[in-house]
Amino acid sequence: MEIMIYALLSVKKKPERLHALLAGMNGIAGADLHQLSFDEITAVVSNMSRASLIADKSTAMEYAAVIETLSKHFILLPMRFGSVMESNEAIIHMLERNYHDIQQNLLKVERKFEFGLKVFCDSEKLMAELREKSEAVSKTQRTTVAEIKNSASRIWVNKKLKEHRLEELLVTYVDSVIAEITGQLDRLKTISKIKKMVTPTTIIDGVFLLDKALKDELIHAVGDLQNKFPGLNFILTGPWPPYNFVDFTVK
Questions:
Q1: What is the mean pLDDT of residues 91-97?
Q2: Reported confidence tier of residue 152, pLDDT bands at 50, 70, 90
Q3: Which pLDDT value is given to residue 94?
Q4: What is residue 46's DSSP assignment?
Q5: Which terminus of the chain has fewer CB atoms gathered within 10 Å of its CB, N or C?
Q6: pTM value?
Q7: What stretches of the chain show up as alpha helix (H) in DSSP?
Q8: Nearest C-alpha neighbor of 87 from the set 23, 51, 27, 36
Q9: Is the predicted pLDDT of residue 155 greater than 70, yes or no?
Q10: How far apart are CA 250 and CA 26, in angstroms?
Q11: Helices vs. strands in the chain: H and E counts, helices first
Q12: Are 39 and 88 in contact (CB under 8 A)?
């Protein structure tokens, strides 16, 4: 029987607490959970073959529920959904081979939460505002464009100049919002990963690793950002286990 890994934990001197916790929990499809350890690192696992694993919303929620419960009691690294190895022995050997990297990652997330921040916009309204700015800037370029004698070429060049300028203004605007976000969060000593222009309406999608004691300060910081950019919608989610901050490749 193959074995699914839910999370890697720093148990240290509390193995009896984990044993008692797992006795009252179930994994995917009601599977019994058990632990496999190497030194101070423990993997929480259940019997689960790749062939029987159904990747649907219900199963993903069961998987996440296990990790969420464990994160309330232990420092942990969530494993990617579907992390399956061939035997208990293979998992113990994996823990041994990757021991240093796992320990470093556990130290990084100790006493920290993950939060998500999405920034939404009314794309039509935002583009209209930027278009007005683009039109104002394009007036300075008319002399150069007028030197092109062919009217069809002039129309084409004008169109491309406007599109290019609009794209530049949008990127500059989003970068300015990101700079404000990172400026607020740098003082909280967060570790962040930010993507921009995810969709036309989701201009920023970020995740942050933050000390648990600074949760209220983060909420206030996002409130300040919302006040500074009333035309945008800042959505803060969390706290979550550190799904996006497991930075090692299994050897």
A1: 96
A2: low
A3: 96
A4: E
A5: C
A6: 0.79
A7: 15-23, 57-71, 88-97, 99-109, 123-138, 142-146, 151-186, 215-228
A8: 36
A9: no
A10: 26
A11: 8, 9
A12: no
pLDDT tier for residue 168 given thresholds of 50, 70 and 90: confident
Whether residue 208 contacts residue 192, with contact meaning beta carbons closer than 8 Å, is answered with: yes
Topology (CATH level 3) of domain 113-131+168-245: Alpha-Beta Plaits (3.30.70)
Distance CA 184, CA 220 (A): 10
Quote the tokens at residue 120: 């939404």
Q: At 66, is the secondary structure helix, strand, or coil? A: helix
- Taking only the tens place, the pLDDT of each residue in 220-248 is 999 999 999 999 999 999 999 999 998 88
Provide the residue count of the chain: 251
Domain range summary for the chain, segments of one domain joined by +:
3-110, 113-131+168-245
Q: List Cβ neighbours of 232 (8 Å cut-off, separation of 6 or more).
A: 119, 120, 121, 177, 203, 226
Q: How far apart are CA 82 and CA 132, in angstroms?
A: 49
